[in-house]
Amino acid sequence: MASVMQRGQDEPFDVVSTYHRLLSEDPELTMPVGAIEALILGLANTPASTVSETLDLVSKLTAQLKRSIPNPISLSAGTDLFQQYLISNLQRPSAKGDFDQIRSHLVQNGRLFVERAKAARETIAGFGRHFIRDGNTVLTNGGSRVVGSLLRSAAESSNGNGRGSIRFRVIYVVSPSSGSVEESESTANIAALRERDIPVATIPPTAIAYCMDQVTQCFVGAEGVVENGGIVSRLGTLQMATLAKAAGKPFYVVSESHKFVRLYPLGQQDLGIEQNIVDFRTAKGSESGTERREVKDEGVADMEVETGSSKATGVASKPEDAVDYTPPHLISGIITESGVLLPSAVSEELIKIWF
Amino acid sequence: MPSQTTTPYDIVASYRRLLSEDPDLTQPVAAIESLILGLANTPATTVSETLDLVSTLTAQLKAGIPNSISLSAGTDLFQQYLITNLQRPSARGDFDQIRSHLVQNGRLFVERAKAARADIAGYGRHFIRDGNTVLTNGGSRVVGALLRNAAESGNGRGRGTIRFRVIYVGSPSGCGKSASDNETAANIAALRERDIPVAEIPPTAIAYCMDTVTSCFVGAEGVVENGGIVSRLGTYQMAVLAKAAGKPFYVVSESHKFVRLYPLGQRDLGIDQRVVEFKTGKGVVVESARGQTDGEGGDSLVVGESKVDYTPPSFINGIITEVGVLLPSAVSEELIKIWF
């Protein structure tokens, strides 16, 4: 906890529970934006009177947040963005004068950022709508709000009756085992589309290859877009991308630009999070215990340091929160609110945001 | 239908009973057994009456089971066998004698078919080497036997000398209670007993783990003329992902599952299964021009767990049968040998 700053407070500010509360209260909120809001609330509630104290507070809260969530990739996009924003603002020459004024100005701007992030979804739907034409069949993974709003926007486009002039069909891949938030999100999307006379079919994840020949293009959402243009998304997205490429169908990623992360993974195991998807077990128990022992026996000095830092989270992902990494050569385009980007353009965007 | 018996012989019920009673029985072999029982139970005195009876029973069976590809391999084989036997010159003489001889030979066939699994395991064992990671779809008894055999091979203590790992792909419905899921669970437990590490993954994680996999083994419901296979829904997907990652994909199947079918695509299998069914707020969108309405009756719809897909031969690296390991292009040769 941020105990150094507690002088005036009755209860310490709990950024993790604030973050979870914000996410559950507002279903439209994405993880990075939720993280930014939680940090803004943390700033507003905790008195800090110097620039370095503020920056220190923010980095402490960020570290707390990242430690408590098993998969911090998505929210780290938001926290890193906010930290960057703070640093650039607090180091401006006009930042002399009343610190409280600066702080409230920052908090206000932060709120403006959150509003803009929510509005981004509409802009994205506007761009993405042109990718869907008459007679197309769209394949999508369930659970992405951006994709849902894109499809709904395409369904309603340009007709006063509330029925769109684009006639397309949607195939939703639904994992039958989950009873989580994502499934109810998919169900809501599917019902909304069906109401607008868009035929929707739901298939199990084993039938993606089966139906790929009748699909025109695929749309998926992402938890994070990484530096090389690849994405980190729900487990099963890599599979859909590989199958789309094998069948020659375009594969589009739909994502807000605040989800761009400064991460460059070299493979599935290089994401910096601990998830036990492939867990080898014999009658004696899990094999992963013996593997770690073997690694230590190698005697290579820096390997120990690496395993130490990657296990820093200490919280393992649940199976339904598992994510995978889709490399950029499988992605045909990334639809964001600043336009439609090729995967190679993502690093340009990141430079624009960060420098 | 025969008029002398009190209750007419119900081949569909007999087929289903045979399948549920003997968990080691495959669909074609169960079809052959039920036909043999039908022959034994129904009196027929001439050759043409017998052949007619068999074709009537076969038609009944195919109409009663929604996914008739696998069992049609067995029925066609039996019909062919009958015809060759009944048309031999030595087939003059007491017809009853011939019939009982046929029934006996039929039973011999069933015994051989069950023993085939051990032969296949013997051939397939050489495909698994030290340090390999094997990926497999659940629910195939042949693959389970092959893996268990590899686990036990060559060592008197019941623990094999080949150290490999297995990744089992679970069925999409999560916890399954069907016979194939129990079979899978039994296989996994048997492998773990022999110190073979086994991991179970959901079907969404196949691409995720494909780079750690050395080879894939799957079973088949039927092997079609061009060397492709008809197998559980999800097999085609695994084959595409294996090919995309450059990993070998092997099919393990008895030779009595070879079917005289030549599908041109997923929807050319001759069965009615609605995998992709579009619905709007007003109800199901019916695709009338599709040819899916070729299915005979409304109740011959394949549902739920028994859906199948077709994997073309270009994705298959080898078919391991009890007559050896075949390339997909050799399947039509085998079919000719069986049929002519």
From TrEMBL, chain B:
InterPro entries: eIF2B_alpha/beta/delta, elF-2B_alpha_N, IF-2B-related, IF_2B-like_C, NagB/RpiA_transferase-like. Pfam families: IF-2B. Keywords: Cytoplasm, Initiation factor, Protein biosynthesis. One of its GO terms (molecular function) is translation initiation factor activity. The keyword Protein biosynthesis applies. Signal peptide: none annotated. Component of the translation initiation factor 2B (eIF2B) complex which is a heterodecamer of two sets of five different subunits: alpha, beta, gamma, delta and epsilon. Subunits alpha, beta and delta comprise a regulatory subcomplex and subunits epsilon and gamma comprise a catalytic subcomplex. Within the complex, the hexameric regulatory complex resides at the center, with the two heterodimeric catalytic subcomplexes bound on opposite sides. This is Translation initiation factor eIF2B subunit alpha. It comes from Meristemomyces frigidus.
